[in-house]
């Protein structure tokens, strides 16, 4: 006795809300046995397509129960319905519903991809199915390269890919000429003879005559159910296709990567096929990533530039200055730093070198050339402490430092101003009217935070104090700490020594480490602030991605419906659109990084004064950020695509 494979009991289907509710199916009761060839016939608007959609689990009834293999589908979730469509049914549509960017063999394989079949196995099976249907020469042809009859045969092969226990054909010959239509009906008849259950919807009595059971539907109700005795019954046959199906499923991890790779390929093809739209979508991300990476590079370059200037003053240095703290308005009243303090500090075991500093401003003159300059009274160790180097001549000696000779070392700016065309070494200049002999010229390099155009003259501090400004105290003492010693410990010991000598704390100290940390914290804060502003452009770019992806969902609604009809779950649809969004953002991010680095390289050549320093951390952060934007702003369009109703999606042209 034949097994009932589908059973519909009191099926009703309504559309619209309560005020505009229209019922199109009125209590349908129908049983279909395994191996039957059933034709559902009726005029347009009779409800036959709605009934077919419910049978194929593309739609759900409003009331009643629908049993597939004895299991009620009424309360099944969307993914469970997708599993039924994928593994139990095979769909043949009037308009073929092939994916235009895939070739014939790839179209046939789509249901097997969602069924997690092994790639090699599904490739071989699709080839066999197409060869059986006479398309062995058309495996690599896309739908637009096939005739209507050939496209319908590809659709039939796709329906058989996962076995096609029940084949649902909606007006399978409606878009074909008579010859192609006859070929398609011959194929369906042969499939039924092999044991497949075939249900076809048609309005053509000639097509219905091929079925051994004809169900007439009118105004949402079954008018007649007539058996055609002339058509042989195949209900007792075993489905050869089911025996031929290779059920070697992939394990969960392999299946995930297989579906992911297929979705990734689909995303790339969609991007390539819409190049201009993809480029415009990427533009916002490119500009945003460029802004962020460039701003971080600029801030990092500025920070490194400042740090290098601090380092140029001497690595691991501590400066002792009069007053209670930086900015003390009474600091000029504290005149307790002296040469004895200098000698005491030099005697500490961790001190590499130390130099006093006495400063004043004045005029320097050579012949008719006159300029304002900063005059520094220093010791011979000053140049080592501050990392300064002699280019011409020499520095003064320790003996000269304390014996008040009228000699000096000038910087490159002073040499250029007073001796533009001749050597300065051995020549005399007037410093505040006093003749001083130049013994050395410094290299042209940045020193601390001094302006690049400042003129500086360095004389022995004893000379400046006794011969020029008549001062007995030191303006400051700078100490260079030996490598390997802690600056914090050294500072504490120096403070203890000077407090003991002075009897009170009338000085403060500033270390290069403290300056570096302060500047690093400050530049870090500004980097975050400016980067936050630049991130706004990334958000704008992300909104652009979301808008374009929403448009893409609208344009590809029909494709989504086809994928759902052949077994794609909501997660599969969502994954594909998320991959596309993330890919657009990652590619845009990489292009933004490339352009930013290229621009930075160009600026280094054309405008070397602009400091830019790119870091791998900022590049990685940019890629991660662009990926996150793809996920965040791609989620809504992907979710919108995944929640489409298969029927509505298929109906969209």
Poorly predicted runs: 240-248
Number of strands: 20
Q: What sort of overall outline do the alpha carbons produce when their principal axes are compared?
A: rod-shaped
- In helices, the fraction of residues equals 40-55%
Largest sheet: 6 strands, mixed
- The DSSP helix count reads 21
Strand neighbour order, sheet with most strands = 6-7-8-3-9-10
Structure description:
The protein is built from 21 helices and 20 strands. The protein has 653 residues and is of the alpha/beta class. It has a six-stranded mixed sheet, sandwiched between helices. Strands 12-13-18-15-17-16 form a six-stranded mixed β-barrel. A hairpin with a 2-residue loop joins β4 and β5. The protein is rod-shaped and about 130 Å long. It starts with a strand and ends with a helix.
């Amino acid at each position: 006795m034949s097994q009932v494979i589908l059973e519909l009991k009191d099926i009703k289907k309504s559309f619209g809300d309560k005020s505009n509710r229209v019922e199109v199916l009125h209590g349908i009761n129908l049983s279909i046995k395994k191996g039957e060839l059933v034709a559902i016939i009726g005029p347009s608007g009779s409800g036959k397509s709605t009934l077919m959609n419910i049978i194929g689990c593309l739609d759900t009834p409003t009331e009643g129960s629908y049993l597939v293999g004895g299991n009620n589908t009424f309360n099944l979730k969307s993914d469970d319905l997708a599993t039924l469509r994928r593994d139990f049914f095979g769909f043949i549509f009037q308009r073929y519903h092939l994916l235009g960017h895939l070739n014939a063999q790839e179209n046939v394989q789509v249901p097997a991809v969602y069924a997690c079949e092994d790639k090699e196995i599904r490739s071989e099976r699709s080839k066999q199915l197409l060869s059986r249907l006479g398309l062995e020469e058309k495996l690599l042809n896309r739908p637009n390269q096939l005739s209507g009859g050939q496209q319908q045969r590809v659709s039939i092969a796709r329906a058989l890919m996962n076995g096609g226990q029940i084949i649902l054909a909606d007006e399978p010959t409606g878009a074909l000429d008579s010859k192609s239509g006859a070929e398609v009906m011959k194929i369906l008849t042969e499939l039924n003879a092999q044991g497949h259950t075939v249900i076809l919807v048609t309005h053509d009595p000639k097509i219905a005559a091929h079925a051994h059971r004809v169900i007439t539907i009118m105004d949402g109700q079954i008018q007649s159910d007539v058996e055609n005795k002339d058509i042989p019954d195949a209900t007792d046959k075993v489905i050869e296709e089911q025996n031929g199906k290779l059920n070697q499923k992939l394990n969960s991890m392999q299946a995930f990567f297989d579906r992911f790779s297929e979705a990734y390929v689909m995303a790339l093809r969609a991007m390539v096929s819409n190049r201009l739209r993809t480029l415009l979508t990427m533009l916002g991300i490119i500009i945003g990533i460029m802004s962020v990476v460039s701003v971080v590079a600029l801030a990092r370059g500025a920070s490194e530039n400042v740090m290098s200037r601090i380092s140029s003053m001497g690595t691991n240095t501590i400066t002792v200055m009069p007053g209670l703290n930086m900015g003390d308005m009474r600091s000029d009243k504290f005149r307790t730093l002296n040469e004895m303090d200098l000698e005491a500090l030099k005697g500490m075991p961790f001190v590499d070198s130390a130099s006093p500093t006495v400063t004043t401003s004045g005029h320097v003159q050579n012949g008719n050339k006159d300029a304002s300059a900063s005059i520094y009274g220093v010791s011979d160790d000053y140049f080592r402490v501050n990392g300064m180097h002699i280019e011409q001549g020499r520095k003064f000696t320790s003996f000269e430092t304390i014996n008040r000779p009228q000699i000096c070392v000038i910087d490159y700016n002073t040499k250029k101003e007073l001796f533009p065309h001749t050597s300065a070494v051995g020549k005399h200049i007037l410093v505040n009217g006093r003749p001083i002999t130049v013994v050395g010229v410094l290299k042209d390099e940045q020193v601390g935070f001094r302006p690049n155009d400042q003129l500086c003259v360095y004389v022995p501090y004893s000379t400046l104090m006794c011969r020029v400004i008549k001062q007995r105290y030191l303006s400051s003492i700078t100490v260079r700490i030996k490598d390997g010693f802690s600056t914090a410990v050294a500072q504490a010991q120096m403070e203890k020594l000077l407090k003991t000598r002075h009897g009170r704390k009338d000085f403060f100290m500033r270390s290069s480490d403290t300056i570096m940390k302060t500047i690093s914290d400050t530049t870090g804060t500004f980097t975050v602030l400016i980067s936050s502003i630049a991130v706004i452009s990334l958000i704008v770019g992300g909104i652009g991605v979301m808008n374009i992806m929403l448009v893409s969902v609208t344009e590809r609604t029909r494709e989504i419906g086809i994928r759902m009809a052949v077994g794609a779950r909501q997660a599969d649809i969502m994954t594909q659109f998320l991959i596309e969004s993330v890919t657009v953002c990652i590619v845009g991010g990489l292009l933004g990084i490339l352009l930013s680095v290229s621009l930075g390289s160009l600026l280094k050549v054309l405008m070397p004064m602009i400091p830019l320093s790119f870091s791998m951390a900022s590049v990685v952060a940019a890629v991660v950020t662009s990926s996150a934007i793809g996920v965040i702003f791609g989620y809504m369009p992907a979710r919108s695509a995944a929640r489409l109703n298969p029927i509505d999606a298929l109906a969209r042209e």
